User: Which sequence fits this backbone?
């Protein structure tokens, strides 16, 4: 995704410079301001369209970007803020660049006398005023919506519904993008980029508003079992049609009248059912999920993600050492990893053959209190069956010291599924001890 994001900026800038070379602007304040407006406007427009495509979650998204969805949503947040920042720059270009413009003369605007306009000419003329005025209040609304990202007290469902307004704003701003461009610009590369961005953004904006996100990978499902513990709810869901889910992937779940929420798949059952471990961390997971009952209909979307065991397997020639670190409910994908490894081991004729095809792994689980973890017995049993060394750290007794993990040696690979604080601390300690950044795999928690 990084190549796409920075590649778009480079391509847009190159197209803009090519346009300046082919059709040089008048060297005065008005001509220069138009070109700066055009350049930063297309950049902002492109990043807004990218953010909308990610939010729409088309089935091809991970494959085309070669980036797992959890990481794509981090890019969604980043490029969304870039789009807002560039929009403000676009809006205030004349003010920001006033010192430069003051050194130039303003080309006088010729007074054009037209006859009475009718039909399409009248409509097109009137659209200019709307294109200008609507862009101002659309930018203000977008800034307000962007600020709501930091209001954690806002219920996730309400926040997500408000967030969809970006799609409506894109539709409105498309008039600004097309109407205020010079017709001659559409014959140049930058104008073609503008048209392409507008078409793609409009398509996925409409899909988001009409169909919702991820519809291509959505299937009806039914809840078959629910286990409610103090802070963990274990949900078993049976999709109407089989889904090819790999250990470590995640899916979105939606109950009636609720938006879809992402949860890691903790277990893949023989009949195709999926078991999710849901931690009470927010309003929905605390109040609504424990009330789900067997027989309830849900919508299931997935699978997504690339935090899979296959990414960490090695060949027989080089058996690697790995450290897997989970924080709290971050144990869910590792539970699926252990289940998959245990099943594979059971199918291998001897331990030596299994050892050649699997890494030497150690799983570390950081929890507050073992007594509050209903999955602990299952994790311990799966680790024994899979031949994976398992350790648990209770923060109520002693907190984990990340640097101490690597005093006896640095593993070849590191897998992390925890909150940002713990994941960052362990990753930094791993790199400081001599580990490679490219040997780190992460499942990201915080998308909002």
Assistant:
């Amino acid at each position: 995704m990084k190549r796409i994001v920075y590649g778009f900026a480079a391509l847009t800038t190159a197209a803009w410079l090519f346009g300046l070379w082919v059709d040089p602007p008048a060297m005065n304040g008005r001509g220069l301001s138009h070109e700066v407006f055009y350049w930063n406007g297309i950049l902002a427009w492109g990043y807004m369209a990218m953010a909308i495509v990610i939010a729409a979650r088309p089935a091809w998204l991970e494959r085309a970007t070669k980036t797992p969805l959890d990481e794509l949503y981090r890019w969604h947040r980043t490029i969304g803020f870039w789009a807002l920042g560039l929009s403000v720059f676009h809006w205030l270009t004349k003010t920001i660049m006033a010192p430069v413009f003051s050194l130039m003369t303003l080309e006088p605007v010729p007074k054009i006398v037209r006859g009475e306009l009718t039909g399409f000419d009248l409509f097109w003329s009137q659209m200019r005023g709307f294109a200008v005025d609507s862009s101002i209040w659309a930018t203000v609304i977008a800034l307000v919506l962007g600020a709501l990202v930091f209001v954690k007290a806002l219920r996730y469902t309400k926040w997500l519904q408000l967030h969809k307004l970006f799609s409506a704003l894109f539709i409105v701003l498309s008039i600004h993008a097309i109407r205020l461009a010079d017709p001659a610009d559409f014959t140049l590369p930058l104008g073609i980029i503008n048209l392409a961005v507008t078409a793609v953004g409009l398509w996925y904006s409409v899909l988001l508003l009409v169909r919702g996100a991820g519809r291509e990978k959505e299937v009806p499902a039914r809840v078959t079992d629910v286990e409610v513990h103090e802070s963990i709810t274990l949900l078993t869901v049976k999709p109407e049609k089989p889904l090819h889910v790999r250990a470590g992937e995640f899916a979105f779940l939606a109950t009636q009248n609720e938006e879809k929420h992402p949860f890691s798949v903790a277990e893949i059952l023989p009949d195709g059912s999926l078991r999710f471990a849901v931690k009470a961390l927010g309003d929905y997971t605390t109040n609504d999920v424990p009330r789900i009952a067997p027989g309830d209909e849900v919508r299931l979307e997935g699978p997504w993600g690339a935090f899979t065991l296959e990414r960490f397997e090695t060949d027989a020639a080089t058996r690697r050492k790995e450290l897997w670190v989970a924080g709290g409910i971050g144990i869910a994908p590792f539970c699926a990893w252990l289940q998959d490894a245990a099943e594979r081991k059971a199918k291998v004729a001897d331990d030596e053959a299994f050892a050649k095809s699997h890494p030497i792994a150690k799983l570390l689980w950081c929890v507050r209190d073992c007594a509050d973890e209903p999955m602990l017995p299952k994790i311990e049993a799966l680790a024994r069956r899979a031949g994976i060394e398992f350790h648990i750290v209770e923060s109520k007794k002693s907190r984990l010291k990340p640097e101490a993990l690597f005093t006896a040696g640095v593993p070849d690979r590191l897998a992390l599924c925890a909150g940002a604080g713990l994941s960052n601390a362990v990753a930094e300690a791993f790199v400081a001890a001599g580990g490679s950044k490219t040997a780190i795999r992460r499942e990201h928690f915080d998308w909002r």
